[in-house]
What does this fold into?
Amino acid sequence: MTERARERQAHPLEPAPVDARFDINARFAETQQREQEQRLAILEDDVYRAVPWRQCELVTVTLPATAHVNIDITHKLRPPSPTDVKWVVAGWAFESVPSEPPYVYRDISTTAKPWTSSTITLRSNMTAGVVYIQVSVPGA
It folds into this structure.
């Protein structure tokens, strides 16, 4: 009986050494990596096709000293009509912590200032701060 066979008898549950070419775990990991890369490429293509806008711009707006007044926001987008412009607050900057949650809103009263093809008008409950607004035009 060889020395190796004696070792096997002493430790029967110990796995045999594996040749790297036939290591099923390594092969599985490689396959998983390839599949993940393929899924990522497909996802990137899907995201590109599903982007909800064809034009967008990040606008920095300094808030006026009075709250709840019209703030004209000029942009360089080319919307089919002024109401096609969509907006979302991307961030805020204040010198100190506000006493209430900040928000920006569109005035929908009968006296609201109409939007133009290069300007939207919003309002905010905050004063003396900066708001970053992403304006966009949806894609076709």
About this structure: The mean pLDDT is 84. The longest helix spans residues 24-50. The first strand starts at residue 53 and ends at 62. Residues 4 and 137 are 73 Å apart (CA to CA).
